[in-house]
Amino acid sequence: MSIEADHRDPLALAGLLQLVSPALPIGAFAWSQGLESAFELGWVNDEESLEAWMQGVLDDGLTHCDLPVLVRVMRAWEGDDAAALVYWNDWLQANRETRELLEEEHRLGAALVRLLGNLELLPTAPRIPETPGYVVMFGLAAWRRGIAEREALLGFAWAWLENQLAVACKALPLGQTAAQRIIERMRPALARAVEAASRLSDDELGPALPGLALASALHETQYSRLFRS
């Protein structure tokens, strides 16, 4: 099935909604991606600073790392290109700058392998990299569901946004209405990120998130924690 399947296909749309649902049993809710440490350090403490943090991560992280790699792995799944899958899986994991961020990539990837196996959605040939990460397995699920590239990227970014806001609602005095205001303001940014990520060449890829890397590293020894990263 083509990854450029008609996005109006109700089955593809339902598959996308299933893949980005908070109910997907992969444990994404347990990880804050350094955000909990940013709260502890006082870098993020209200609606305005939270939105600025997430906008920075979207622009300098997802747009130049996760999203363009997702394009490449979806094409590799469709083209049965095992070498490309291994390359981009290794490349992405090499760009996870702390133990916790790498562990998150591994654990969510392993959870998706188990889930897709139970749903009989894994490929019949052993094309899965030895230690598949979350992005590679998300790409497999999106391809198997016939989800078009841009819709898959938007869904991935939407799942990230919702998870970050869920973290903030648990760890900050941030209400659900404030979270919805941030979503409303960031929806156009998600669309712009997808378009930008789709145009990047290989030599333009790479995150630039020193603050997030520092926050994530400090989280490893943070005294009181709700989240695993």
UniProtKB/TrEMBL annotation:
Q: What does this protein do?
A: Required for maturation of urease via the functional incorporation of the urease nickel metallocenter.
Offer a single GO CC term for the protein: cytoplasm
* Main location, first listed in the record: cytoplasm
Spell out the molecular function terms from Gene Ontology: nickel cation binding
Location of the protein in the cell: Cytoplasm
Q: Which gene name belongs to this protein?
A: ureF
Under the heading Pfam families, the entry gives:
UreF
Subunit details: UreD, UreF and UreG form a complex that acts as a GTP-hydrolysis-dependent molecular chaperone, activating the urease apoprotein by helping to assemble the nickel containing metallocenter of UreC. The UreE protein probably delivers the nickel.
UniProt name for this protein: Urease accessory protein UreF
Q: Which UniProt keywords apply?
A: Chaperone, Cytoplasm, Nickel insertion
**What family classification does the UniProt entry report for this protein?**
Belongs to the UreF family.
Task: Say which domain of life the source belongs to.
Answer: Bacteria
